Amino acid sequence: MSEVEFSMSTDGVDWAGLRAALVTDRFDNGRTPEQYRRSHENSHAVVFGRVGDGYVANGRILSDGVCNAYLVDIWTAAPYRRRGVGREVVRRLLATVPGQHVALFTDDMTAFYATLGFRAQAGGMSRIVGRWLDDGRG
Ligand SMILES: CC(C)(COP(=O)(O)OP(=O)(O)OC[C@H]1O[C@@H](n2cnc3c(N)ncnc32)[C@H](O)[C@@H]1OP(=O)(O)O)[C@@H](O)C(=O)NCCC(=O)NCCS
């Protein structure tokens, strides 16, 4: 983890490079580089982990700034896992939302989030409005 450089700014981010790293790691969800830029710039806080020019970690948190927040895009590149990088990404994001209720969805990483104090909560529901990633802008 010591070689990973963390940043919480979107300034100068190579969105195509981030997308390429996520595609390589099969953690891309169909966004274009421009959609990656918008989704990060519209987030409450973001974290990028780099080694040299390459992206090896990422995460975002959405928040209303008062009571509710939502963790998304939490990712550590496969060769850098189990070194505390993901924990550091989440720690930095949670530090921006004191006093708030933080939710997330995960299919198979419950063990990771459990180490960070999250507990499964029944009653979650979700849906997509229209077609995934289609905001009508063409
Ligand atoms: C989930 C993810 C971000 C974890 O990142 P990471 O950098 O490996 O996590 P850390 O090294 O900080 O792990 C902290 C602790 O969480 C637990 N943990 C992490 N990954 C785990 C796994 N695959 N299985 C079980 N426990 C795990 C361990 O207790 C670990 O501490 P330890 O290594 O000392 O035992 C990473 O596996 C990942 O990017 N996965 C693919 C994308 C993904 O599924 N993201 C989550 C979407 S909701």
From TrEMBL:
Q: What class of enzyme is it?
A: transferase
Keywords, in A-Z order: Acyltransferase, Transferase
Acyltransferase as UniProt keyword: yes
Q: Which InterPro entries match?
A: Acyl_CoA_acyltransferase, GNAT_dom
- Is Transferase a UniProt keyword of this protein? yes
What EC number(s) does the entry state? 2.3.-.-
**Locate the N-acetyltransferase domain: which residues?**
4-138
Tell me which Pfam families the record gives: Acetyltransf_1
GO MF annotation: an example: acyltransferase activity
- Which portions of this protein are annotated as coiled-coil regions? none
What is the name listed in the Swiss-Prot or TrEMBL entry for this protein? GNAT family N-acetyltransferase
